Amino acid sequence: MTQPTAAPRRGPAGAVVPKQPAGWYSKATSVAVAVLIWKTLAVFEGYWWEETMLMTALTLLCAALIEVALPKGYRAAKSVFQAILSLILIAVVASAYGELTWQRVSAEDGGLPKWLEIHFAQLSAFIWICAAVLILYTMFIHWATTRTRLFAVLSAVLLTLTVADSFTPVWLWDEVAWVVLTGLLWLVANHLSGFQSKHPGNWKALLRSPFQLFVPVAAVLAVLMTGGLIMPSISPLLQDPYTIWKESKGEQVGTFIGDKADADNPLSNMDSSSGYGRNDTNLGGGFNYDYSPVMTVESSRRSYWRGETKDVYTGTGWLDSEAAASRFASERVGLRSVLPGEDRYRAETVKVEQTVRMIREEPYPVLFAAQQATSLNWVNDPDASRLNPPLFWSEEDGELRLYEGAEMPDDGYDGPYPGAYSVTSEAVVLDEEALRQTHAGWEDASRNAPYLQLPGELPERVKELAEEVTAAAASDYDKAKMLEQYLRSAYPYTNQPDLSKLRGSDSTDFVDQFLFVLEEGYCDYFSTAMAVMGRAIGLPTRWVKGFAPGALPVADPGPGGFGPEELMEMNPDGAGTYTVRNSDAHSWVEVYFEGFGWIPFEPTSGFSYPYSVPETDSEPIPSSTPEETDKTPAQPETEQNNGSGVPFRLIGWTAAVLLAAAAAFWAYARRHAIASAWEAYRFRSFTADERIVWETERLLRKCKRRGLVRGEHETIREAIGRWNGTGSQLKRELHEVIDRFELAKYSPVQASSEDAERFASKVKAIIEQVK
């Protein structure tokens, strides 16, 4: 007999109301959309950071699991759980990759609101990306409810991947294969869901033998995928129209996306991202954060990685003096040669061994090293017998510079920037008391002149402010420290200063604009301001650019965790392998002190230079850990918890509480289904009559707790009759219970499972009334 087709459900006006998809199909859609978006994000492979890709993948996984685990509906609750768990995952991944520096903020410094502001600033870029992915995912799973929309989603994803495959260097055919497989499975699920809604009886019959339904589907998909995997690689028979058109003209299909700015392309965005700048003649503006890695530095001590120095301030930026080119030795540096340095007869020094391995294939004019380099150990090959490429050393500037002369030696080098090199440096131990006993500059005034140069157009108020700030200083070192601390405390850090403040201003000098008009900025603003203000009061200064230390891998705190003090005891020198990114590009100031040489100062708000300090100091100079790099807005100098156990424990407990809350919410929403499942399991071995007897005995126990006691020699019917005589309002219901009980107990007629279910419901209703 043919199964009758269910009549369509109609609305108030008689219009047919489309059937809602089955619950299992909604969950299948949630999984399919998550896979499709995940594969689409492969377009950004190589352009996004590894941690960004991981965060988005975990966000999608978390969202899909919540959609599957929680029952249909409860949209607001699902969205809240998805957002909170995604935020926790972002923080955990960012901490693991060294992109998040945990800090404690006291109540006096702003408490919880300030703590949230500081950490949100570090995570904002990741949060917005993951939020966009989560919003897109939610929109798709609620929009793709029909087959037409399903095809629309698949078409959009396939179009995105194929276009990106054509116009970018990313190979995406594996992702296309995954999308096709996912789309086929989604279409099968859509068809089965439609079949279930139209023919519920036949659907139930199919479920009694699921292998007959699903095995053929799995076999067809397996054959298709296996054929695709073992098929030999051949040139594509079909190409997109744009590729055909370009190749017909004998041209290559170019890429629209790349990881380097093109100097010849007027649309290039060279000046918009953080990184080691090439042109320092016009400082200012703002920058966006570029988190791509530049190099790793395996070092025996935490340091700033020094690059170039500049000594001529023009009013808009920095230049090398005409004498700078002549300061390089006439012969290039030899392998393992000693690099002559400045006279530091009053200073104690410590050795810093560094091995630099470049990640970006990008040329720089210098090799990077901690201050001050004393020997070059090897370049590219530790076992090489000679040094290549040609390098020249400037004792005055402390720079290891690549050969840039017009005449290349016969055995000259025309290859790429060195991929790896090893340098030994000697860092000055910062003895503040000894520095206060000396003076800034050389005894020979002519040597000071280049480092006291200022443009004639420098506004007088810059010098007046410098004199005002240092009026109470008792030594040149105190003057430098007062300038440093004034800039750090008086001006906030931002990577995007409000340049609209310059409109209508008469100020044209870069430092004057920073100090009196913008009153905010990033490292170039702070360092240039200190160098110029120092020169204005007679301190010989020079401007230095390079990289901040970067990030060490986050140590595993273990079950008990450890704080900053324990970390410092474990690794007091900050030894390790640092990952240095474009966002770590930085600039600072050096002041010359007789007998000590060039001493670095860090005026940028939110940074601390990693000084070495005398072992006899009971209280060392403030933390050598920079509290941020040029990639994040300034943060107050609160206690660091970089890698400490407290935030990870906080995250762990928060995640556990949220998961427990999600589980409790799920259990509450499914309480009836859970209760039914438990009853089915509990009475799986009971006959219907045994179930009725058990339910009757449960009723008697409940009644006893409410004062309706059955006598020792009373039958159940006698006890219920006595209860009815006391004015019970459940007389009819109780008599129905005893009648059904006696049938189950004494009658040869067997009750059905439906009879047992109805009896259990009646007993439950009586118990509710007895309460």
Automatic annotation (TrEMBL):
Q: Which UniProt keywords apply?
A: Membrane, Transmembrane, Transmembrane helix
Q: Which residues are the signal sequence here?
A: none
InterPro entries xrefs = Bact_TGase-like, Papain-like_cys_pep_sf, TgpA-like_C, TgpA_N, Transglutaminase-like
* Ranges where the Transglutaminase-like domain occurs: 515-605
Q: Where is this region: Disordered?
A: 612-643
Task: Fetch the Pfam families from UniProt.
Answer: DUF4129, TgpA_N, Transglut_core
- Which SMART domains does the entry link to? TGc
- Is the Transmembrane keyword given for this protein? yes
- Give the top-rank taxon of the lineage listed in the UniProt record for this protein: Bacteria
- Is the keyword Membrane assigned to this protein? yes
Looking at the UniProt entry, the stretches that span the membrane are 28-47, 53-70, 79-98, 118-138, 150-170, 176-192, 213-234, 650-669
Q: What is this protein called?
A: DUF3488 and DUF4129 domain-containing transglutaminase family protein
**Which species does the entry assign this protein to?**
Paenibacillus thailandensis
Lineage runs: Bacteria, Bacillati, Bacillota, Bacilli, Bacillales
